[in-house]
Amino acid sequence: MSFIADKQTLEDMNLLGRYNQHSIFNLFNKVKTAGGEKLLQEMFQTPLTDPELINKRSETFQYFQSRHTAFPFSNEQFDAMGNYLSGTSGKFFPRILLSLAYKKLLATIVRDEEYPKIQSGLRQTIAVLYQCKTFISQLEEEQQQHPFYDELQTVKNILNQPKLQWLEKVQIGGAPYSIQITARYDHLLRYTLRSALQTVMNIFYMLDVYLAVANLAKDKSFSYAKALPNAANIFSATGLRHPNINKAVANPVSFHKDSNLIFLTGANMAGKSTFMKAFGINLYLAHMGFPVAASDMEFSVKQGIYTSINVPDNLDMGLSHFYAEVLRVKKVAEEVSNGKNLVIIFDELFKGTNVKDAYDATLAVTAAFSEYRNCLFIVSTHIIEAGEILKQQSNIQSLYLPTIMNGSVPTYTYQLQQGISADRHGMMIIENEGILELLEN
């Protein structure tokens, strides 16, 4: 079963985007190879829903983080090998030999580049395979099983088979190989062992991702979440923070089935949206088995996450901002009422309508959603009056982000506190900016 996160959710949390400098993907994209980057993109697009698979991937990252190992290859080396192996060779050795002889003749007479390219690709592929063999021997630990053991053994078995014993003796530099040697190696690598060598490359792309992410986790002081079966419906984290903000303020967050909704209040700029994004991003990363920006975390796996943070209007369809909000809430309600185990984040419910309607709708919708104890919710709002009624429900946590006034200047702690915000500093901020005085003058 695939993890659900639609386009708006991914955009709200700025998760994807190779060319988006501030995306969470780019935070982790420290890989060395194009194949590693492609694999990293696939991991970001397909979070896991099996706690055993999530925990195994986390354990693999932790294993490589403990080794302090750097990926020993460049993208150019693997590109050269990939380009060489993607070319055609042939099934029959005599034909390969004749073909190479013809290509070499063309290279001599008309300076055709194909034969030198084959020689270069062959040499670079042999060099990479030799380095792979050396690198794996350095990673081996006697009689110790580790999370990446099976993959390394697969590569080791491929490279240690009798057909490749010549790798130990072959001259990597020096004069070009003879046509006979070139034909023999070319037939072996690009025909006989082509599939096996692609497996070697894929495992090293995987290794590239594991080493890059593990080293980032060490640099950023990230930790690893423990995945639990969904039945427990638990989320608990300390020191949770936004992974893409340096020196971000950390907060504890806790849910369980009898306390499954956070009703969040606070002034503008107090940090509500950032906190909700931090929660959503880390939950998403945890389902990938990736390191998280928290001191510690454990969570019951979910089927997906929906956010409603930056709901756009749609002028082409004639949708106002409010109606777009309503349709978004309806979509989430359909998913929740169908029994799916989800995490839902609503930022400023129904801000596109008048205060009275917003109050009534926030109160009714929040109370109705909270009854789905298999799901977890965070709902933020400025309608603090709704919070006074909702806090009477035992499964709703009332939390707020405070504003501290230094005279007429607001400052923010970004630290969660129990209760409902009483901050009403909007007019004070407007007065501080001198807007009314400017208009009067």
TrEMBL record:
Pfam families named in the record: MutS_III, MutS_V
Start and end residues of each DNA mismatch repair proteins mutS family domain: 259-440
SMART domains: MUTSac
DNA-binding is among the record's keywords: yes
Keywords linked to the UniProt accession: ATP-binding, DNA-binding, Nucleotide-binding
Coiled coil regions, renumbered to chain: none
Species of the source: Mucilaginibacter gynuensis
Gene3D superfamilies membership: 1.10.1420.10, P-loop containing nucleotide triphosphate hydrolases
Top-level taxon in the UniProt lineage: Bacteria
Protein name: MutS family DNA mismatch repair protein
Keyword Secreted set for record: no
